[in-house]
């Protein structure tokens, strides 16, 4: 299949892009790396009147530290992170996630902002950044607003983006020295989207943990106060205290009725817990 006809604009700066999006009144689509939008256009799952190509916007390619957190422009690619061209406040956690997204060709073009905006429940950044406690900044002609990743991804292929808004930047807090990180996923083949993701940022010294069960049919399950998954208390022995029954209940509550599916998700989350504790 080939896309339905569309007009194409490649704005020179962010304000021009925002003006084009505002003027289109919802009939335009942004293209960044094109790794998801390309196939969707070809399959005619989306038929925008206008494509606004933001891939030339220098403002969205910036990456740097600000007040102890990492601020990544939306156009930072997975390969930029994998190759260490951006600073790392997560002590290797993001680099490891980036290196295992799809194939190198996809990572060269696919962007962190595009991945979040597409809001595929199986996308790695959706789960990993939620576990890391990241926030996203959205910009429109009216100004900017910021929200946690778990508030931004509201369902399968559904985000909080409103007409005229663009993902401008992702803010990643520094990982505490005492915080452990675990990330596991199950894919049928290397390079394919995951059908289960488990991510955990646990800080026994601070008695806190963020746990994410991703690649379910809707937005990931994000547990920001995860003590109940560890017998009511997060401490150095969290690996032994991890309670698979609580994880199973969370999945049941999320509407996953199939026992085998729940078993896969719980096992993958357990792998993430073991990785964190290793
Ligand atoms: C073969 C293949 C395998 C893949 N496997 C994986 C995988 O294992 N894990 C994984 O996480 N991902 C995977 N991906 C997805 C890939 O990683 C890209 O991140 C993803 O396609 C989106 O990034 P993009 O920059 O290409 O966005 P695009 O395709 O350009 O855009 C995607 C969507 O986001 C919107 N958009 C883009 N940028 C912005 C912005 N700044 N603000 C607002 N809206 C925006 C677009 O309008 C569109 O709706 C795979 C892709 C392919 C083709």
Automatic annotation (TrEMBL):
PROSITE patterns according to UniProt: FAD_PCMH
GO molecular function annotation: FAD binding; oxidoreductase activity
All residue ranges annotated as the FAD-binding PCMH-type domain in the record: 1-177
Keywords for the protein's UniProt record, in alphabetical order: FAD, Flavoprotein, Oxidoreductase
InterPro entries noted in UniProt: Diverse_Substr_Oxidored (IPR051312), FAD-bd_PCMH (IPR016166), FAD-bd_PCMH-like_sf (IPR036318), FAD-bd_PCMH_sub1 (IPR016167), FAD-bd_PCMH_sub2 (IPR016169), Mopterin_DH_FAD-bd (IPR002346)
Presence of keyword Aminoacyl-tRNA synthetase: no
One Pfam short name: FAD_binding_5
Keyword Secreted listed: no
Taxonomic superkingdom: Bacteria
Protein name listed in UniProt: Carbon monoxide dehydrogenase
């Amino acid at each position: 299949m080939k896309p339905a006809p569309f007009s194409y604009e490649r704005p020179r700066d962010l304000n021009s892009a925002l003006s084009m999006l505002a003027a289109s009144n919802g009939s335009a689509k942004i293209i960044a790396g094109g790794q998801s939008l390309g196939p969707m256009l070809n399959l005619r799952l989306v038929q925008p009147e206008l494509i606004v190509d933001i891939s030339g916007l220098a403002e969205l390619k910036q990456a740097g530290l600000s007040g102890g957190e990492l601020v990544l422009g939306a156009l930072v690619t997975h390969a930029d992170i994998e190759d260490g061209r951006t600073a790392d406040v997560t002590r290797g956690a993001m680099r490891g996630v980036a290196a295992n997204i799809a194939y190198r060709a996809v990572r060269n073009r696919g962007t962190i902002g595009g991945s979040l905006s597409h809001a595929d429940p199986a996308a790695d950044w959706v789960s990993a950044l939620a576990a890391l406690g990241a926030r996203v900044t959205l910009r429109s002609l009216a100004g900017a607003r910021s929200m946690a990743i778990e508030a931004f991804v509201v369902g399968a292929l559904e985000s909080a983006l409103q007409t005229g808004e663009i993902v401008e930047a992702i803010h990643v807090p520094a990982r505490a020295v005492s915080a452990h990180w675990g990330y596991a996923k199950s894919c049928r083949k290397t390079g394919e989207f995951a059908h289960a993701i488990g991510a955990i940022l646990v800080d026994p010294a601070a008695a806190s943990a963020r746990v994410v069960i991703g690649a379910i049919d809707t937005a990931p399950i994000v547990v920001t106060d995860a003590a109940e998954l560890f017998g009511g208390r997060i401490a150095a022995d969290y690996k032994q205290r991890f309670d698979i029954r609580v994880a199973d209940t969370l999945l049941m509550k999320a509407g996953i009725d199939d026992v085998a599916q729940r078993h896969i998700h719980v096992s993958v989350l357990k792998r993430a817990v073991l990785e964190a504790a290793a």
